[in-house]
Amino acid sequence: MCNSLAMGLTEPLIMQIYCRLEVAVTDPQAVAKLAGQQLREADIDWSRREEDLDEAVHQLESDLTQALSCVIEHDRMIEHLPGVEPRGGLAFTTIGKPDDRFRPGFTDFL
Predict the structure, then answer these.
(1) pLDDT tops 90 at residue 73
(2) What angle (nearest 5°) sits at the alpha carbon of residue 57, between those of residues 54 and 61?
(3) Which residues make Cβ contacts (< 8 Å) with residue 61, sequence separation at least 6?
């Protein structure tokens, strides 16, 4: 057993989870619409932005990879785990075959 687990923790142990998930998007318009809806509902001060809300929604809905990245709820992967709380994360999407950096056993990027 890991020494820090055996000794007990006084501070949370911050860890990273790396994963690659392949999905088939069967309804790109539904993904784009959801991303646009979530952007409209977000608490964003548009007066401080170069673009306005409608322009931002249009740009998001026009880019499937960006739209899919925005609607992924990566913290839900661990919501059922006791003693683990999400602190943030990064989700990005690409179209096509997986990047070689994310193949099993390849650790040069770590």
Answers:
(1) no
(2) 140
(3) 32, 33, 35, 36, 67
